[in-house]
Amino acid sequence: MTLLPARKAAAFPIKKGQHLKITNTHGKQVVDFWAFNPNDNHDYLSMVHSRTILLSISPRVGNSLYSTRRKPMLTLVEDTTPGVHDMVWSACDRERYRMLGAVEYHDNCHDNMHQALKESFPADQYPHLQISDDWVPDPLNLFMNVVVDHRGGLDIRPPTSERGQYVVLRAETDLVIVISSCPQDMAPVNAGMPADCEYEVFNDAALTESASESKSTIPRTLTKRPKRVKVALSFDFDAVSHWLGTGCHPDNNMADYSSGIFAGQVGAIRLLNMLKRKNIADKVTWFVPGHTIETFPTSVKKVVESGAEIGLHGYSHEGIYQMTPEQERDVLVKCIEVATKLCNGRKPRGYRAPMYTIRETTVELLREFGFLYNSSLMHHDSQPYWTPADPPIEKIDFSKPASSWLKPTAIAEPTIGPLESGKRPLVEIPCGWYNEDMMPLQYLPHLPNSMGYVSTRVVEQMWKDKFMWLWENAPRIEGEYDSERANDSADFVFPILMHPDTSGMAHIIGMSERIISWLQGWGETVQFYKHEDIAKEWLEAQQSHK
User: pLDDT tens for residues 36-70?
Assistant: First the structure.
């Protein structure tokens, strides 16, 4: 077997009657496939002609694949995969990756094909096998899973092929073959990062060789594949409250408040309708300030009716150091009251601090009032953990001698929680600045670090980069003793935070829908969960080990 390295291509001849075996060594790698008549550069494997003749968009065992002259070039004679291949999708190219957000050159099948042909079949020796540099035929995408919905829409999903499965094609005429191990890592084409494959050309007598007898020694490019990912998609429904609390400023004016009214009357409804189209409206969490509940009751009621979870988010989006501890308690009590009434007597179980401004008194109040979880801290970015109960970190007083601060800070080990200390359990669901839309994508005139003119593609790609790293590196070993240890309920949690104020805007909501579709494209291994359900299942897993 010959190695086809990840992200690379190979070009080679095959004689009439010979067979080509392509093995998906690691199970989820797409291979772009082309075939050419070496004596006629206008005669090549054509997906549009093959589709027309086969009346199908995916080949089956026994099907021939046809050229631009409607002549059979190859026949699929064996397929040990579930039979999911694609004859619709174009080869990836530089422009495709630019559209996905790449800012530098990205390996692609278009360039791979041209480079492989030029290196193996130079123009001075093969004058009839030269094609224009700015064009490639549509490939046969072996192992690629492109789903067509009832309205004709296309959706990329992870391949269904498994490790070691293969296809065998018989050449019906002399051909030049080009195959590319697709470099796509910005969409779930390969269910992760690109991987190596193997191929072999042989005569009919070798066709009986069993795949299990072939011992591959190729080092695996794709290492670990988590199978339990929980997407924690949430919405902070700030609306006008932001401008009253953390966004309070003497220069706030009617235009500022107007953007909050947009969130309450327009942005939230747009997002809610989009979530319904994506069938996840009842699998997300909305953190709603008390002010929003009472100021925009119609919109908030529609959120509740969608089946979403309602969590608390202050009353007027108060910053923690804008309030005394007594005021903080009064605000929490009021918010519990209005949210419980909104949800027909069901008390809220989750809390997120406005602008992540939280202190030790907040944690104690959440325990006192029986909350299940908090989502305001950043001790971890992809694993639930116990909300810490450490004392306040002592600040440095530079008016004193240096010896007064030359000492470590006492921080509890992440493995020590309330089940050991006897405190009420409070689960922390990760969140953070890099998981949200507002700071980069909305201009807030009097708030430092807000931007508003960052491309949505930058934020979208940052989220995808984070997901891909976690997908590749999250441990699968239960009890692995480090900060990345897996747990019984999920390999990792993937938090995303949106705001109706921001993602409800027309130029941003498209990104919101794209990232949701991209995550759904990973199939059953990636599921959307309410924060409450994530916390509950994680807590149950911890209690079962106690």
Answer: 999 998 999 999 999 999 999 999 999 999 999 99
The strand pairing partners of 32, in sequence order, are 141, 180
Contact 24, 212 (CB under 8 A): no
Burial class (CB in 10 A: 0-12, 13-18, 19+), 247: buried
| 139-153, 341-355, 377-391 — most confident range | 341-355
Q: Work out the average pLDDT over 451-480.
A: 78
Angle at 395 between CA 393 and CA 398, to 5 degrees: 160
Q: Assess contact for 195 and 182: CB atoms under 8 A.
A: no
Which of the 8 DSSP states describes residue 67?
B
What sections of 164-322 are H helices per DSSP?
A: 241-244, 254-262, 268-277, 290-295, 297-305
pTM value is: 0.64
- Residue in the block written with tokens 């009346």: 55
What is the maximum span of the chain, computed from C-alpha positions, in angstroms? Answer: 88
Alpha helices (runs of H) in 369-451, residue ranges in sequence order = 418-421, 438-441
Residues 6+ apart with CB under 8 A from 234: 284, 285, 286, 287, 311, 352, 375, 431, 495, 496, 497, 498, 531
